[in-house]
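Hello again, I could really use a second opinion on something today. I've dropped the whole record in just underneath, so have a look.
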Amino acid sequence: MTTVVHRRVLAGAATALFASSVYPVYNPRCTDGAMRLDDDDPIVHATREIAFQTGVTHPENVHVYVSMDGETGGSMGANVFGRGSVCISNAVYRGFHLDENVDDEDEDDLPSKEEAEFILAHECVHLAKNHSLVMSSFVPMAMLSSASLTTKVSNKFLATLLGVGSLVVGGIYLSWWMEYEADHGAASLGHRFHIGGLSTLERTRRRNCMFKQMHPTRWITDEGNYLADTAHPWLTTRIDHLSSHNIDDCHNCAFCSLVSTPFRST
């Protein structure tokens, strides 16, 4: 009886967690003071065109937000729901419009237009591949699997260790796989996106190296990898991934999807 109740409670908790995590994907919004751009903004037009190229079925439903925080961007939504939002930093927005703002005092610190386009493409691939939905679905399923494991292993400490370990390792692997796929898919759109991707990652790596020189810390390696960021692969591996693989073929590495989105190269 206790086991049945335990399973029902666990199933209910997993269902509630799944619903709460999927709702923001179904109804994507950027909060924390982000400002939604007008549909006639050139960067919105560019984002929707890129979204179409990456395989988003309803690019007209993709909205773009600008946040004063952060350095690159993020996305929320899913292709299966036919809607999505892309949130970029103010630096990315200014970098995209750099040709129009030639007198920008911080021009040297801004990403180039190619880098801005790669960041937009990277986030659009996340939307096209339903990555937010996949990650939202992973957590409750992993919880159920971990709980099931504890009922089958007599040593509860070992069972808990295995359950938590599989949840953490599985989550990191899934997150890294999606980031590699988004990098590869964005770079597949054409040479300027490929160059923009390499430049974006290299810029971040150099910035980390400079920060380590000014503020020595063990969390940043000598190569510029930020160890505390477990949601993203190391910058050096992402750079190597884009540098060493045939960008026209998304089947060349273990982290790229076996079911390839028909990216429309330009």
Q: What stands out?
A: Residues 35 and 50 are 21 Å apart (CA to CA).
